[in-house]
Amino acid sequence: MTESAGNKNEDCHAANGVKAGRNGMVKNHHHHHHCQKQEEVYHAACNGELYSRPFIESFEETPMLVAVLTYMGYGILTIFGYLRDFMREWKIEKCHIAREREEQKDFVPLYQDFEDFYTRNLYMRIRDSWNRPICSAPGATFDLIERSSNDYNWTFEYTGRVVKDVINLGSYNYLGFAENTGASATAAGEVTVKFGVGMASTRQEMGNLDRHEELENLVASFLGVESAMAFGMGFATNSMNIPALAGKGCLILSDELNHASLVLGARLSGSTIWVFKHNNMQSLEKLLREAIVHGQPRTRLTWKKILILVEGIYSMEGSIIRLPELIALKKKYKAYLYLDEAHSIGALGPCGRGVVEYFGLDSKDVDVMMGTFTKSFGAAGGYIAGRKDLIDYLRTHSHSAIYATSMSLPVVEQIITCMKCIMGKDGTTIGRSRIQRLAENTVYFRRRLREMGFIIYGNNDSPVVPMMLYMPAKIGAFGREMLKRNIGVVVVGFPATPIIESRARFCISAAHTKEMLDRALDVISEVGDLLQLKYSRHKVLPSLDRTVDEE
Amino acid sequence: MAAGQQWVLVEMVQAFYEAPAYHLILEGILILWIIRLLFSKTYKLQERSDLTEKEKEELIEEWQPEPLVPPVSKDHPSRNYDVVTGPPSHKIIVNGKECINFASFNFLGLLDSERVKLKALSSLKKYGVGTCGPRGFYGTFDVHLELEERLARFMGTEEAIIYSYGFATIASAIPAYSKRGDIIFVDEAACFSIQKGLQASRSFVKHFKHNDMEDLERLLKEQEIEDQKNPRKARVIRRFIVVEGLYINTADVCPLPDLVRLKYRYKVRIFLEESMSFGVLGEHGRGVTEHFGVNIDDIDLISANMENALASIGGFCCGRSFVIDHQRLSGQGYCFSASLPPMLASAAIEALNIMEEDPGIFRLLQDKCKHVHKALQGTPGLKLVGEPLAPALHLQLENSSGSRTEDLKLLRAIVDYSLDRQIALTLARYLDKEERFLPPPSIRVVVTVEQTQEEIQTAAQCIREAALNILKR
Asked: Is B217 exposed, middle or buried (0-12, 13-18, 19+ CB in 10 A)?
């Protein structure tokens, strides 16, 4: 599906002013396995009439030297891991690992030794970067409880001190509603006193309150769809509702980097799952054509339906789904689209309505819109929205409506207040200004980081900013150095990311002031110099966005 | 070495001369055939070389998928929910009428405890509502750690882990330990979340008849025989028994001492789901292990949700650190999901405080359960399913009409009749097509400590009248 983008690109400029006019077909997205000498690729996708704004994404290639050193680092760690296991086995080293009961020593072992190798020997060394306990609201800053370890992270003690006002670059607090003051907290407080926190019944039995129905109507009007339904947990929204929508004889086309909840939902449904390359519409089209033309693998029956599972913003990559192309594909091949807007609802689009508004598309084109309330609304839970017949079906057949307790009322109240604030229905412009501030913060932060020379993945407009670290030792070092300077960051390594592509992930919030961001950027630059993290080689190739699938 | 090689060569040449002619010809033909296969073109099985581009386009044009969801009829029994306005407590306003609540799992009456509400409020004032992150990424609050520690201490285990959703607790715990190739023995009456956990784990699942220890022993013996055939494989296959303390579908207790005996005999681990029995059974509310006096270390994992007796939201698993710590990295509902809102965790802590301060409440609940059980016996046309100490009983039709929809209509009529007379009851809901062993349709009757004698008598009387009026036709 190649369009004549060559002609249309005369009008488009890449973000840094380089005209994209050359007629070369360049690969648009690097897969992690390619080790070609291609450098960073900027591409402005102004794909004729499909995109109404420039779509600028980049995933700079891992520098060769860095890749080699990273593999070497993991190799050394593995050798040491074996050595330490050996020493622990022969009691030369004290063993802190929890052991099986004496009475159950002759049972089949609960864990294979191999499964835990990574946990014991690599994860343990830098375990203090995760599960850091806090004792305040997860707003723009938080208070961290200090921990120390005398035995290299096997056990932790609390020193009793609290580190105050640590700048929070880790929580998914995009619009800054995770606060303990303000309209939403007051409303939730009133509801707590009046109604209590528990429900003790399911939606279909005695747990359906009028507030739940009000919330659902509000979500439906927020998204511009006919009807919506809310659930108590975002993860469970996917894993319990995808099985209701697809079953045996259906085909699910799932993006390579989909979240664990989507993968679990797809697996539990019992459908056939085919995976297409991340955000790659050619790969998806190829699969669609093959599915429709050839039917099911052995019986050659036609598929009952095809469901495409994608996310709005992928939080590990910072990439935004190519929604205009996807909707065009979906309409051509009559597939159904399930869009998981966990990170993009509230964070993208001029009115915060998510990735559909960001691209200026019609929400009726997306068959199933799913999202969570955890990130931009500072509450908990998830929703599914779409046409009325879809929601009616889910009301009767969703696992959550039948077996799971309904949402707690203070949480419902928080969501209603925040949503009204974003929509402007509470009479203020707080929502509008927050959305604007988030967009400004995002662009500013990304631009500054890029200028400093770090490798940043993802789309220019995505508030999730992954910054590459690559080497295993730098994962722990970055987290600790940032904390010493009073900034809390999130670092991610294997298995959430490919093994050599460990990264630090910053989540920008509307609650961050410019001073906080400047301070954070200065610190990041300082730590980046200390740890030599400024890998970017900043070479830009003028290129087209349209590519040919070079299979 | 050369002599040895020469000797082998001589042997070969000798064999060549000695072989019969047909043998040589056959071998020659086979070698020629192999050479031909090696040099011939390979064909991909999928590729149909007879479809042109035009034909493919036509197929794409013609293909019509099914609608995304089948239409739901207007009188589907679960399409319209009963609407509750006001707090879901002992006196509950359903569809505009104030009723006495016999339908919510509010066993200890903590849903509208003032202490719990105030504690939740102060937590809200400190932390806000949401945690905006999973446990690994600044979603761990001190209240979570405190709640885990309190639960572990209350149950007498080493460690506990909290989930933010009751359904996801056991559904994430089972696949964290049991993988493809492992074997799980599970009771037929296991609840839906256990079934989902089993499905996600991809292990072999063997069902034994409900509470039938002989059937379980038979399955274990069969497995033992299988093991003896292949001891090497048997040494790596993990085995688990998954049971509930108090079954939600049949309202009876599992025979735990027998299960522990079978555990040590056949070397199987036990996972115990205690959503209905936590805070109900036992002298201090510790569940079915306390009820039977079984050592808690004998049970590998206890899982429960905090949505029944603790009147909060979420769930927890407790056990030895050796077992529980593993879930912190491989429990899907723990690692990939936002943590429990801190105000709900504070509410659970306060509920635990109340439970610890006043253990008499459990005795009271058990007395009320017995009372309700006695009061509902002998209802004409309905049979009471459940043990006297179960707080959530089922009323099933004595004589089924043969069709599930008809039965459901009759039971719904009884529920409506009771709602009119201010007794809130509900039908027990199931997902008909997905349940493995679908329980018969029933009305759920829940006992809470807040129900008075009169209220229980009124309810029993009302149900009797309803049954007489509706079922006699």
From this structure: middle
Residues of chain A with Cβ-Cβ distance to B308 below 8 Å are 200
Burial zone of A222 (CB within 10 Å; 0-12 exposed, 13-18 middle, 19+ buried): buried
Q: Is B87's CB within 8 Å of A194's CB?
A: yes
| B82 to A206: CB separation less than 8 angstroms, yes or no | yes
**CB contact set of A376 (below 8 Å; sequence gap of 6+):** A172, A174, A175, A177, A345, A346, A347, A352, A418, A422
Tell whether B141 lies on the interface with A, counting CB pairs under 8 A: yes
Q: Cβ A185–B127 below 8 Å, yes or no?
A: no
Residues B352 and B367 in one domain: no
**Contact present, A413 and A211 (Cβ < 8 Å):** yes
CA A500 to chain centre: 19
* Strand (E) or helix (H) holding A490: strand A490-492
Number of neighbouring beta carbons within 10 Å of residue A95: 14
Q: Provide DSSP, B329-352.
A: HH-HHHHSSBPPPHHHHHHHHHHH
**Domain stops at, among B307, B323, B357:** B357
Chosen for mutation from B91, B125, B129 (greatest number of chain A CBs closer than 10 Å) is B129
* Residues 271-290 (A) with a CB less than 8 A from some CB of B: 289-290
Q: Which residue of B has its CA nearest to A106?
A: B267
Tens of pLDDT, residue by residue over A61-71, are 888 899 999 99
- Min CA distance, A494 vs chain B (Å)? 12
- The answer to whether residues B144 and B241 belong to one domain is yes
Interface contact flag, A204 B81, Cβ < 8 Å: yes
Distance from CA of B9 to the nearest CA of A (A): 47
Omega before residue A109 within 30° of 0, cis: no
Do B94 and B183 fall within a single domain?
no
Residue A122 tokens, joined? 């690599």
Q: Which residues contact B319 (CB under 8 A, 6 or more apart)?
A: B157, B158, B159, B299, B300, B301, B302
Residues B346 and B239 reside in one and the same domain: yes
B395 falls within a domain: yes
CATH number of the domain residue B400 falls in: 3.90.1150.10
CA distance A228 to A233: 15
Which residue in chain B has the smallest CA separation from A175?
Answer: B132
Q: Is the ipTM of this complex over 0.95?
A: no
Cα dihedral: B202, B204, B209, B211 (round 10): -70
Q: Domain residues for B328?
A: 114-357
A135 part of contact set with chain B, CB < 8 Å: yes
Please give the domain boundaries of chain A with CATH numbers for all domains.
Answer: 63-168+430-536 (3.90.1150.10), 183-423 (3.40.640.10)
CB within 8 Å of chain A, chain B residues 242-301 = 264, 267-269, 297
| Residue that is last in its domain, among B357, B388, B420 | B357
Contact of B88 with chain A, judged by CB distance below 8 Å, is answered with yes
Residue A241: closest CA among A309, A180, A288: A309
Question: Does B376 reside within a domain?
Answer: yes
Cβ of B308 within 8 Å of Cβ of A192? The answer is no
B243 and B259 Cβ atoms separated by less than 8 Å: yes
> How far is it, in rounded angstroms, from Cα A324 to Cα A54?
12
**Quick one: B296 and B161 in the same domain?**
yes
Q: Which residues contact B119 (CB under 8 A, 6 or more apart)?
A: B346, B347, B349, B350
Q: Is residue B52 part of a domain?
A: no
Among chain B residues, the shortest Cα distance to A130 is held by B136
Domains held by chain B: number:
2
Domain membership of residue B456 (yes or no) is yes
Walk along chain B (473 residues) in steps of 10 and give the mean pLDDT of each run.
Answer: 67 79 89 90 62 84 88 82 88 90 91 92 92 92 94 94 93 93 93 93 93 94 92 90 93 93 93 93 92 93 92 93 90 91 94 93 92 89 90 90 87 91 90 88 92 91 90 71
